[in-house]
Amino acid sequence: MKKSSVLIAGGGSTYTPAIVNMLIANLDRFPIRKLKFYDIDGERQKITADACAIILKENAPEIEFLATTDPETAYTDVDIVMAHIRVGGLPMRGLDEKISLKHGLVGQETCGPGGIAYGMRSIGGMIDNIDYMDKYSPDAWMLNYSNPASIVAEACRVLRPKSKVINICDMPIGLEDRMSKMIGLPSRKDMIVRYFGLNHFGWWTHITDKEGNDLKPAIMKHIAEKGYVVDESEYAYDNRESWKYSHMKARDLVRIMPEYIPNTYLKYYLFPDDEVAHADPEYTRADEVIDGREKSVFSACREIAAKGTAKDSLIRKDNHATFIVDLACALTTNTKERMLLIVENKGAISNFPSDAMVEIPCLVGKDGYEPLAVGKIPTFQKGLMEEQVAVEKLVVEAWVEGSYLKLWQALTLSKTVPGANKAKEVLDDLITANKGYWPELR
Ligand code: NAD
Ligand code: G6P
Ligand code: MN
User: Fold this and answer.
1) Which residues form the Glycosyl hydrolase family 4 C-terminal domain (predicted)?
2) Which one of 50, 131, 134, 170 is the catalytic residue?
């Protein structure tokens, strides 16, 4: 089997060490000859890189490893780019969340004003990385899971339509893992699913086992009673209690949409008042991540570097991130695996705009992806999606044109914002906070 050269863009991410462990565990099906990290913050990346160098030396010494802040060194001789950058870092995520909450609006990483603000930061960083790939390794594929994925995907469609970028999200995968556990199946791969929507905004319409037996009623019954919660103990580490709240909130989502299984992120659009009431404007999810995942991952990394060994390290193997390997395998060995990707609709949802970026099942092989037909979707979902797609398109247009008006319209149209006055208030605060990250708006 051909060995790949892999670049992790955003090498200093809190997810990087667990992904490296996962890649090592999957070398039999996705062999790697070279692994590189690229980040604009060399100091942050050094923490994960020093630890991963040791992890690799102990577990896969044949893999050549390097970490760099130089785009040419990073992007030369690469087959697969795994991109998980966060422009502005967790501190800017915190501001997105807090500024929104200060105005009584949903304060969230990828939804509502926070997601719009993050989108305005991410587009430039993503385009830089795509351009490096196109320049130094034009045959490579970029598997992007940098957020906000729907806005990033729309920016790719508009600004770099020919670049080989595939946008994917782990949320459906994580929720499918939960569903399989709810009904006692060994793996989510024992289920065949049909799904449609936008990123962080979608529904499962059908779930069967391999024999075609309908699994949806049993899953729905579990969600109606316990939401997506399957194991209470999992929330104990890394400040994950707020995820429990999200998983429980799915109970309300199936009350208003009993026909399909919902992505939990829909709660920000359908129950924004509950979200605001439940949030602490002084201590948001960004703080939880800084005090939880970032602290635990980085201290484990520092410990590996200090001891010179990763034996007994607390760094986990991110099992659910194996979808990244599935995707890389599909592209390198033509598996034609069926995966949910964020792609241009082009008629797949027949009663929805052709140029909308939607999240739907696709078959993936060495020439890329082939979306599967979804057909017609119902009025309620269609209406919600049309509004949200317009928001995402307006954000990208605002970024490209430097248009204050279009960003104001985007915020006004978001279901999480009650009207143009509120939209303007929060926009003006976000502009001040994002100086240097957003293009100048006129
Ligand atoms: P993080 O801040 O810990 O790590 C992100 C890294 O990206 C940082 O080291 C930062 O310096 C670097 N970076 C910023 N701008 C860059 C640029 N232009 N080029 C290269 N590197 C750059 O963030 P995190 O919590 O680990 O999350 C990383 C990203 O992954 C976020 O965008 C997050 O939303 C996303 N994410 C996506 C999914 C998904 O399924 N789509 C799942 C989890 C996380
Ligand atoms: C899920 C979503 C990601 C999002 C992440 C946030 O994995 O699919 O898009 O970035 O949750 O998790 P966090 O722990 O950082 O709040
Ligand atoms: Mn996601």
Assistant:
1) 195-417
2) 170
Give the tens place of pLDDT for each residue, 263-279.
999 999 999 999 999 99
Task: Please tell me the predicted confidence (pLDDT) of residue 280.
Answer: 98
The answer to pTM > 0.70 is yes
Phi and psi at residue 66, to the nearest 5°: -155, 155
Check if 145 has its Cβ closer than 6 Å to any atom of ligand 1: yes
Do 249 and 206 meet the contact criterion of CB atoms below 8 Å apart? no
What pLDDT, on the 0 to 100 scale, is given for residue 318?
87
- Index of the ligand 1 atom closest to the CA of residue 170: 40
How far is 14 from 382, CA to CA, in rounded Å? 36
In the reported structure, the alpha carbon of residue 75 is separated from the centroid of ligand 1 by a whole-number distance in angstroms of 18
Q: How far is CA 233 from CA 118, 183, 244, in A?
A: 32, 18, 10
What is the distance between the alpha carbons of residues 134 and 351, in angstroms, rounded to a whole number? 34
Burial of 183 (0-12, 13-18, 19+ CB in 10 A): middle
Whose CA is closest to 398, among 157, 162, 155? 155
Would the CB of 12 count as within 6 Å of ligand 1? Answer: yes
Please provide the average confidence, as pLDDT, over all residues in the chain: 97
